[in-house]
Amino acid sequence: MPELLPWAWVVLGLAALTIGLAKTAIPGGGILPVALFAAVLPARTSTAALLLLLIVGDMFALIAYRRHAHWPTLLRLAPAVVAGLVAGFAFLALGDDSIVRRAIGVILLAMIAVTLWRRWRQRKTDAAAAEHGIVVASTYGALAGFTTMVANAAGPVMSMYFLAMRTPVQVFLGTSAWFFAIVNLVKVPFLAGIGLFDGQVLLMDAVLVPFVVVGALVGVRVARRMKQQVFDWIVITLTIVGAVYLLL
User: Fold this and answer.
1) Which residues contact 73 (CB under 8 A, 6 or more apart)?
2) Most CB within 10 Å of its CB: which of 152, 189, 200, 206?
3) Domain-embedded: residue 135
4) Cα separation of 44 and 110, whole Å?
């Protein structure tokens, strides 16, 4: 078991709870656990440990929303996502902890910028949806593949894409659930191949899994009552703090 201070376990427990909530109630909220894990653990270790917990959360998201996926959208994104995953794996395999740590910080800040830009755009007049051809899908897909491999931080990218496509809420949640469930499983052999799933990571995740389950169950129950705007701004604020911490 990793030798962590009590405050570090509290932070990881909070992050695990947030994973469950993000998967079942707060789309895009999964960026906070990325910052919290990377602030407490070595960068490469945080990516591996977080991935296994995200897969647990994916199971609950599929149970809740599996019937609402739009498969043509997933198939359109697939080639570019694979290319992004390979590029991200090469970066993760070759970069040392210091480089990966700073890269996660930069990615998080970029994802926050994407999220804020998306919100600003939503407040503009309801213009016609942008053209969503193969070039647009490839751009979003490649960026999502790279950011999810390096930092498990593709949530804002995909949220922006689905919103740009004017995807209905249930289809949004169902397509996201299948997208991340498939991509996260694909990432496992990549990270295992470079030795990131050691005994300490597995033991730590075994301790944190119950927090993910609790968060997911709470998310399912309160999804329709939660004031998402307030929660989103809390997530954004804490993520900015975490990203700046990683860059210092």
Assistant:
1) 162, 165, 167, 175
2) 152
3) yes
4) 19
Which range of residues forms the domain containing residue 29?
6-247
Q: How many CA atoms lie within 13 A of 127 on its CB side?
A: 8
- Positive or negative CA dihedral for 25, 187, 203, 15? negative
DSSP states of 11-26: HHHHHHHHHHHHHHT-
Query: Look-up: residue for tokens 């992050």?
Result: 15
Q: Which of 51, 50, 26 is nearest to 39 (CA)?
A: 50
Q: How many angstroms separate the CA atoms of 70 and 75, rounded?
A: 9
3-state SS class at 28: coil
Q: Do 39 and 5 touch, CB atoms closer than 8 A?
A: no
Q: Who's near 136: CB < 8 A, 6+ residues apart?
A: 130, 164
Residue 209 makes CB contacts below 8 A (sequence gap 6+) with 16, 53, 56
Q: How far apart are alpha carbons 69 and 47 in whole angstroms?
A: 27
Q: DSSP label at 101? A: H
Q: Say which residues have a Cβ less than 8 Å from residue 123's Cβ, sequence separation at least 6.
A: none
pTM: 0.83
Q: Is residue 179 part of a domain?
A: yes
How many domains does the chain contain in total? 1
